[in-house]
């Protein structure tokens, strides 16, 4: 009996201890960008002051900010417990650098738009752009304590833009963007449907409405909206997003690395600098996480 | 007893030594949110804005083909100017700088005024008959678009006058003349709903023609539309639309008309003096480049006649 028990313990040890653990990492966790260290110059302002030049320069910074994506990385090969921390820290440094760079672009764009507004306070275009860059930095900044101030800024700028031209459809659109960020799905849906009813047929309106549908569990309607967005040329980047979103997944060639389903999942806790047991991020059914860190549907 | 113990030891060794766990580090999945798009830059409004929202005309000194009319070549245009002003149909360019000048000087002045977009048309006239016996004279007047040089109105009128040396014309006759000029182009407020139907370089097609009494030579303003939505309760929506172009009508068809763009044009071309050579897309100086940034006329833009 004693021998049997010991055998079972040995087998249990072998099975559980020898498996592969997935360790999920959110590299932007704990990243604290420093707005004070961000560059805050508007190069257009050094020459002959002109609102056009300021806006041109601001648009360049804005586009760089909008193009900023937090770095992502492929699942690592199986590593030892000691190496998990160094991978997590390396990815966090990359994320911190990206966020800090975005912070600089945001500040530079803000200075330029504000300078243009000094010359012409009725520039609704500058005010809407200030809203957009505030929303973007709200999306990128992982520091929860800072994020709300960006949202408040966005609200204030949009309110000023509305004072300049309350019938500008773009203002309603960005109001919907803000409602989406606050998960006010019903209000956002109402605004976006109103824009479409008014003939403001833009790919970004369909995309956002589709996203609202997706987040409220109406996947079919969401897909319909994205398909409609693929049929609208403007704006080009929204159309491209819709095309990518509705593109069917490539057929399986059978050559993809297959692995057993993951059974043990941890999360890297940046505050404690250690792994803690966790539940895997949810996936749409029937997809699941494999031991190699990829998903299988 | 020895054999099971050996097996057990082996199994335990494998369990303990061979079981250093492996870890795969995975990036958290992110929700694919729609891309945040920047706002569309507004289309550039005309700079400077139109000098007038009505058809603006300069009334020139008349020419005297009889060599008998004396000061009437200036008096009649003065009276006509007053009458036209009273009609409220036209915006009148002050004719002070056009008085007492040679025809060559006037021609130059008109060209400058046209290139600076200060006037849309000019009223020219000549006294073609002067009869001291029955105290009558004949006046021929023409209203001409300064861009296309199209004659928009032409008429001959018999005007009575009194006196021999100190000649005085009949105000009622000049009033009739003014009324003819006033009615030469329809009331601008009566033409509604005109929009751009198509655009090709320098020319636009407008959805208003003979059915709306459009005449060749009329001028119109184009308003940018597209990003403005109606107030849900009042339907109000015209408050902040920018004027992006001025055009003049070159051909009228039953339900549409064609128009040439008079503003904006590249200054280098406009100064050349050939209205047909105006090309909104040609190269020009820095101010021109600024005007043409984010500038375009689109199908559906609103057209309001001057």
Task: Provide tags for this entry.
heterodimer, A: 297 residues, mainly alpha, Serine Threonine Protein Phosphatase 5, Tetratricopeptide repeat, 3 domains, 10 helices, 5 strands, globular, B: 306 residues, alpha+beta, Rossmann fold, Thrombin, subunit H, elongated
Return Rg of chain B in Å.
35 Å
**What is the CATH top level name of the largest domain in chain A?**
Mainly Alpha
Class per helix and strand makeup of chain A: mainly alpha
Uncertain residue segments of chain B: 270-284
End-to-end CA span of chain B: 114 Å
Structural category of chain B: alpha+beta
What is the helical fraction of chain A, as a range of percent?
55-70%
Kindly report the greatest chain-chain contact and the residue count on each side.
Answer: A-B, 87 and 45 residues
Count of individual helical segments of chain A: 10
User: Which overall shape of chain B is indicated by the principal axes computed on the Cα atoms?
Assistant: elongated
Domains of chain A (count): 3
What profile does the largest beta sheet of chain A have? 3 strands, mixed
